[in-house]
Amino acid sequence: MRLLVFLAAALFATAMQAQAQVYAPYDGYDEYDGYGYDDPYSPYPPPPYYEPEPGYRDPLQERREPSTRSARGTIVIATSEHTLVYTTSWGEQFAYPIAVGREGKRWYGSTRVVSKREHPEWRPTASMRQKNPRLPAVVKPGPANPLGTRAIYLADGLLRIHGTNDPSSIGTNASSGCFRMYREDVEELYEMVQPGTQVIVQR
Q: How far apart are CA 140 and CA 101, in angstroms?
């Protein structure tokens, strides 16, 4: 009987010790005093650039089921749904969540891809620099670049499909007219899409 009581006490103590070693996940919120680094021209330095583990995909970035059918080899952007759908030349569809232009900054119609660039430079327009004189003439590639790691240029010369240094903006109306994508999504699309691809921007 004493042996059973001793064993039960030992098991209880072991269980309590195991529970005491379980820690809540650390989110690092206080590491930078809680400020969000959204402004690449802020006087504060950016947090270290975070690279997720290979193959990791945030649950918030899950692919969406295409709600539209389109011709093969065509990109369709559904602005109100914050979704970009690319239909390959062999008929497979890829749907990605995106950020679109703010109210008054949206364009609708048909255009085409004219060029692509890896690790693009960002050159603010003259009107952007007039509104914000702190903007430099050019932002070199890197974590602070608003275009991210890939840019797909459309025929008007100003609109682009590109990555972002602010992934929290995906799914919102945040840009000056361009279409922002998560890094891994824009890198995948970049490899598939070629100059000449038709792009249809819908409401």
A: 23
